[in-house]
Design goal:
The protein is α+β, with helices and mostly antiparallel strands and 370 residues long. The protein contains 10 helices and 17 strands. This is Nudix hydrolase domain-containing protein.
Amino acid sequence: VKMKCRTTTLFCIFLAESIASCAAFGWKVRVWRNHGSRPKVNRDGRHNGWKCMASVHGDQRVLNTENLLDHCKMLNSYKTTDFIPFSIESEQLGWLRKEFATRLHSLQLETKQKVFTFEWPQCSEDGSSFMPGNVGLHENLLSDHPQLHDRSAAVNDMVKVLFERGEMRGWRGELQQVSSAFNKPPALLLERGCVPYFGVAAYGVHVNVLVREERGTSVWIAKRALTKATYPGKLDQCVAGGQPQGLSLTENVVKECEEEAGIPQQVAATARPVGAVSYMYATNKGLSPKTLFCYDLEVPRDFVPRALDGEVDSFQKMPIEEAMRSVADQVDMWKPNSALVMIDLAIRHGILNGDEPNYLEILSLLRRKG
């Protein structure tokens, strides 16, 4: 018992001296607090707010750009030889994993429907070339026949069977336009949950909610709800969402701001478009090519976001420098694509600049070619 007491006493003395040393150098320990609509409590009664994170004000250490570079590379890693092109009327729109294409083919044979056509990958007879194959739509569903909605219904009705059987996951009940480029007429309206399986381009909006303060610019960060199907509990932009069919980018920004953070429409309408981040990487479901349209929105110092739609656990305001160091040192705490948007914000604010190692390579990986 005496030994335990002595150990405890020595630890307390060490802790007190450490805190005193931090104060002498102007360092602070920051506790992340919950700004959600209500406190989140686990079953064991513990508060499920933000993790305690130590932040050093005025810290001028070089950012860990090796971590940033590795993360950017991870979100741009794939092998097209693992996939089969998905095309409509000779225009490639996506990629299917070979295993998923085989499941679709088996389902079509089972249901005796005429929705897809299948050309399987093969080598030429002399072995000099490789043909990647193709999954397309049956001629009955091409432009000379049904309208867009009829074609889309045929595709979505077939794949819904796989969702009902548990062979696909993530049905959303929302439609996304599938086209060869953003703002081009859609060739298909695809259930949003199918998008990663078909490897078609997906789009979203991410809003950096900023506050101008005496010490510099701060950014509101969201912690995703623990009930989210994807990346529960990860850090995210204050406002972010997929781009649905039928809304403009500006309309979607205003809608997401109000739903996710309680930002009034007249304030959200002042969000400024500042570019886009794009990437493509392989997932268990398929190939994921995405473009995120980035916006900056300045709010008053006394504004506190409110989680209204249940998708956010809590919010935390912090200097951009601290948020960026969190990405550099603990990128696994972040939703992967939201970390890219944070890197883009740091570059635009000069926090990550050409004096940092790996700067140009990181910069190039934020904009996918093709």
